[in-house]
Amino acid sequence: MNFLKRAIVNLTRNKLVNIILIFLFTSLIIFSLSAIYANRMIENNKSKILETFPPIVIIESDDVALAMEGWRLFREILETEGEIVEDIFVPYPIIDENLLDKISQLPYVQDYSFSAHINLFSRGLRRYRRDWVRDYISLSNMFIFGLETFEIKGVNRSNFFELNQGIIEIIEGDTFTEEQINYGKPVMIISSQFAQMNNLKVGSKITMENLGSGGGATLSQVYNDEYLVFQEIFEMEIIGIYELTRELTPYEPLALEQFGVRQTIDENAHIRQEIQKLNKIYVPLAFAQARNNNFVRNMNRLLLEQDEMLINPYTSLRTENIFFLESATMLPDFHEAVAPLLPEFSHSRDIADNFDLVFVSLNYLVQLSRDAKYLLIISTIIIMFLIGILTVKSRYYEIGVYLSLGSPHKEIIKQFLLEKIIIAIIAFILGLTIGQNISRIISHNLIMQEMSQVYATGRTHTLVYGNHIIGRNDHITDWLVPRYEDVNTILEEFDATLSMVEILTFVTVGITIVIIFTALPTYCTLKKNNINLLREKEG
């Protein structure tokens, strides 16, 4: 047991050197843990965040791609013909029910809903508004007084999308019955703000109009009786009143410098979108389709007489489809499967699109933490190798004395190993107790720095050509973006603490590295002549 006594004596005698070694080993352990924690937290939180998303996908036209194609055709015509044409035809993608039915057969889809949007008019009702935000949809803002337009959304289920996802909540009355949905009854659900503005309640009946006007009228005359070529008047009953249960976070304003003047665009976009939502009237889908069919049939009769292009019933009816998947984790696979089925200038979109920039940052952090992990492994091996060589080299004289006194090689190797193992164990204890907390803080802050970009803004697609805005698109999925606080909660709830098995594996690997790079230089040194080793002191 002489080697044990010598190891303890050496540890107590060379306190400063051993403290430095403990500090160095502990630092390596903390850095290694930080890389492991960051990698685990980022990977797990990516999937965690994805799991919190509602598993919904919408198939829609790609407005940005359509706008770009329009500009491309415009420039092409201008360059070849040298003149500006009034109409540029860009093929609008046809997303019909046949296509949607085919998509709904994919194994990822649990269910899907279909809705249609039309505009109806009223001479007695007024849109809900806020004085300081301009309502661009209101006809009174276009100097057409005495008449107002309302966006009607026809839904094909009683538990329609906004209700199902908690965007709105019915506070009075009830949603549609199956009979009202199937037979397209003239019933509606309105917002509480719209109801208060017009003194309406559940059971109230209102008159709405479906209008079509002919050509030759100015903007302020377009809905005058003399220019109307189609008018359908019907009475509707209010069966439910809803409240908006979600809010949109303000969008980041888009600043442009135009004609030397810097202006901010869409700083109130989120408020206008909320106003638009509060003015939306929900009706059965069959009712909205019947109104659209009447409008198209009567307008086409006039256009046929004038030998003009007829209205396409499909393109005149703005439709919206929503696919509910089995799980949000299926979103990437669903997008990949549906892409070949979609027509040109259309795409599938889900709430994760609002986070794609953040996921790019997280992917970068994942790769960075992976690289750091591998770099630390290589660095640790190199450092341990150098420490082993330098430690043994600084003790050549001591080894020479042991050899001169007849100590066996095994005893000397055991002594050196015991010293380094004791130092390594102390470093592991310190590293695992202090290092876990430090590592958690470092990795958490790294992720939060990237996740702060989310800040609940439903991302808008903005296309700027030169100094001109071509399109800025708000979207239904913007209402479902988790709040920044929710994302922070996800990170706080995730526990990246190493399990006992992982700790034992980590310690075992570390001790093995210490043993290899202590035993190897010591063994090589013992092959030298003890006289030469004693001379090292003299040198």
Description:
- This protein has helices at residues 2-13, 15-52, 63-81, 97-104, 161-164, 178-183, 192-197, 269-278, 285-305, 313-316, 331-338, 356-393, 396-404, 409-451, 484-493, 500-526, 530-538; strands at 56-61, 109-122, 148-155, 168-173, 187-191, 205-213, 228-244, 254-258, 261-265, 281-284, 318-325, 346-350, 461-465, 468-473.
- It is α+β, with helices and mostly antiparallel strands.
- The protein folds into two domains: 2-48 and 360-538, no CATH class; 116-320, no CATH class.
- The strands form four sheets. The protein has a six-stranded mixed β-sheet. Strands 4, 5, 6 and 7 form a four-stranded mixed β-sheet that branches. Strands 8-9 form a two-stranded antiparallel ribbon.
- α2 packs parallel to α14 and α12 runs antiparallel to α14.
- The radius of gyration is 36 Å and the shape is elongated.
Across the major sheet, the strand order is 10-3-2-11-1-12
Domain unit count: 2
- Gap between N and C termini, in Å? 32 Å
Rg, please?
36 Å
Let me know the average pLDDT.
75
Tally of individual helices? 17
Strand content: 15-25%
Low-confidence regions: 453-473
Shape call = elongated
Structural class comes to alpha+beta
Question: Considering DSSP H and I runs of 4 or more, what fraction of the residues is helical?
Answer: 40-55%
Number of E-type strands: 14
Main sheet specs: 6 strands, mixed
